[in-house]
């Protein structure tokens, strides 16, 4: 009997990371603000500013994480996604697959994961950010960090990168599935609005050609189409908005807080969907649930409902699997989930713009 050749594949999932205990909060914040993609100052000015910001913000952030038991749930949530994806891919099309996790600002760091991947000794590697929408501040930063670590570890396997998947069928279906029961509940209460809330960015980042905002809007439009709402109008509409603004710079909008207050003035119930996050963490469980929930009550929003993240929803895992399998059919290098550049030409920050 002839044995079928096996492709030994390593899939690397990328995410932001989060502190795992109170003592981790300040170093986590330092790593975040010391990233040149976040603060563009040259070193050592960036290092000094990161030290100052992280020290000042640590007590506030520690209070936030107290609501979550002292640490972020992001890593265990990502582990569950990795396990589901590995189960889906291993044995498919002659593939022997192991899925690894690397975080940008807290453990496991890229250097740690690269050593694990080297020990696994794969024939091929697929890099897969858990950011559906590409940004120079998230995916690009994580991929640069990984490339440095992979080079230092001496990894030689062929590498393919999935840069984004904002309109992936399974991702969109998973989000829509999470929205539907809450939207039905809200509409029983009168006029309703679906808020797609994504992490914001300074406007200057978008002005430099970062495609993130355009891709977020593409995801929202695809989800609305998947919901097949025939009666968008005075009693039901949707808005894309942005949360987590910090600092004095002008940020993209509208702001989620402003949209919550507007809904209160209009007497509309809200269904709030975290459209750019695929795992629960502080910005969903604290900012959206607690802080914005309290704001909605004060603003007079009749009913405030928050849509859970997709986590390991089967349709989302299928979307990730499709992205990996699609990448394996392409030449080495970077490609988006649809296998072609989807960003309009003005978005020069797209990694496929060359």
Give the SSE map.
Blueprint: E1 7-15, H1 25-33, H2 45-66, H3 74-89, E2 95-103, H4 110-120, E3 124-129, H5 139-153, E4 158-162, H6 169-187, E5 192-199, H7 203-207, H8 212-227, E6 236-243, H9 256-266, E7 269-274, H10 282-299, E8 304-306, H11 314-328, E9 333-335
Parallel strand pairs: 1-2, 1-3, 3-4, 4-9, 5-6, 5-7, 7-8
Features:
about 350 residues, Rossmann fold, 5-stranded parallel sheet, 4-stranded parallel sheet, globular
If you had to describe this structure to a student in words, what would you say it looks like?
This protein is α/β, with parallel strands linked by helices and 354 residues long. Among the domains are: 22-66, no CATH class; 170-306, Rossmann fold (3-Layer(aba) Sandwich), CATH 3.40.50. The chain has eleven helices and nine strands. It has helices at 25-33, 45-66, 74-89, 110-120, 139-153, 169-187, 203-207, 212-227, 256-266, 282-299, 314-328, and strands at residues 7-15, 95-103, 124-129, 158-162, 192-199, 236-243, 269-274, 304-306, 333-335. The strands form two sheets. A five-stranded parallel β-sheet has the order 2-1-3-4-9, with helices on both faces. Helix 5 (139-153) links the parallel strand 3 (124-129) and strand 4. The radius of gyration is 21 Å and the shape is globular. The mean pLDDT is 94.
């Amino acid at each position: 009997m002839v044995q079928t050749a096996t492709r030994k594949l390593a899939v690397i999932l990328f995410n932001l990371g989060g502190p795992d205990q109170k003592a981790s909060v300040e170093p986590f914040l330092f790593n975040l603000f010391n990233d040149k993609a976040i603060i563009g100052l040259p070193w050592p000015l960036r290092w000094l500013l990161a030290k100052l910001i992280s020290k000042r913000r640590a007590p506030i952030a520690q209070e936030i994480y107290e609501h979550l038991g002292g640490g972020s749930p992001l890593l265990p949530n990502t582990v569950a996604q990795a396990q589901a994806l590995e189960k889906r891919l291993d044995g498919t099309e002659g593939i022997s697959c192991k899925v690894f996790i690397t975080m940008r600002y807290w453990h496991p760091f890229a250097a740690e994961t690269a050593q694990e991947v080297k020990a696994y000794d794969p024939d091929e590697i697929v890099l897969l950010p858990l950011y559906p929408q590409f940004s120079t501040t998230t995916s690009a930063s994580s991929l640069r960090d990984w490339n440095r670590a992979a080079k230092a570890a001496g990894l030689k396997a062929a590498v393919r990168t999935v840069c984004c998947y904002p309109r992936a069928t399974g991702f969109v279906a998973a989000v829509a599935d999470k929205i539907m029961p809450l939207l039905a509940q809200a509409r029983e209460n009168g006029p309703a609005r679906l808020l797609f809330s994504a992490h914001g960015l300074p406007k200057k980042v978008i002005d430099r050609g970062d495609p993130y905002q355009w891709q977020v809007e593409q995801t929202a439009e695809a989800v609305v189409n998947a919901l097949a709402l025939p009666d968008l109008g005075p009693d039901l509409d949707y808005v894309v908005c942005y949360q987590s603004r910090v600092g004095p710079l002008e940020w993209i909008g509208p702001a989620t807080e402003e949209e919550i207050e507007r809904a209160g003035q209009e007497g509309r119930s809200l269904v709030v969907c975290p459209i750019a996050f695929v795992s629960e963490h502080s910005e969903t469980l604290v900012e959206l649930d607690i802080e914005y929930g309290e704001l909605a009550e004060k603003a007079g929003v009749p009913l405030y409902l928050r849509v859970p993240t997709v986590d390991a929803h089967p349709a989302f895992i299928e979307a990730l699997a499709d992205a990996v399998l699609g990448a394996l059919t392409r030449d080495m290098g970077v490609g988006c989930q649809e296998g072609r550049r989807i960003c309009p030409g003005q978005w020069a920050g797209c990694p496929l713009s060359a």
